[in-house]
Amino acid sequence: MTDETRAVLVRITGRVQGVGFRFWTRGQAQRLGLSGWVRNEADGSVAALICGPAGAVSTMLERCWTGPFGASVTDVETETAPIDGVMPGFRITK
Q1: DSSP letter string over 48-88?
Q2: Options 22, 31, 63, 91, the catalytic residue
Q3: pLDDT score at 41
Q4: What is the pLDDT of residues 19-33, one digit of tens each?
Q5: Cα distance between residue 29 and residue 74, in whole Å
């Protein structure tokens, strides 16, 4: 059985900036074999595009609720994103 590829845009709110959330997200995504990006937003949230096997994406979304030490996540909003054009690898963007 194959694991269908899935892509989601994620917005994580709470105390998520200034705690290493982007670096933690990149590390978790790389361990799970996911592609995409993560960045800080002007409103204090963290945004990410997460793409890969559906099971790994689901695992990543669950982990986003905890985040790194020092984070306090209040919400993880998701919406389906197009898979087309997602580059391999996971990076931190501005």
Answers
A1: EEEEEEHHHHHHHHHHHTT-STT-EEEEEEEEE---TTPPS
A2: 22
A3: 98
A4: 999 999 999 999 999
A5: 21
Q: Give the residue with greater pLDDT, 7 vs 85.
A: 7
Nearest to 34 by CA among 83, 89, 80, 76: 89
Contact (CB, 8 A) for 28 and 90: no
Residue 71 has pLDDT above 70, yes or no: yes
For 38-67, what is each residue's pLDDT tens digit?
Answer: 999 999 999 999 999 999 999 999 999 999
Pick among 2.30.38.10, 3.40.50.720, 3.40.50.620, 3.30.70.100: CATH of 5-92:
3.30.70.100
15 is catalytic: no
Q: What is the spatial distance between Cα 83 and Cα 69, in angstroms, rounded to a whole number?
A: 31
- Please tell me the distance from the alpha carbon of residue 17 to that of residue 33, in angstroms, as a whole number: 24
Catalytic residue among 11, 15, 39, 40: 40
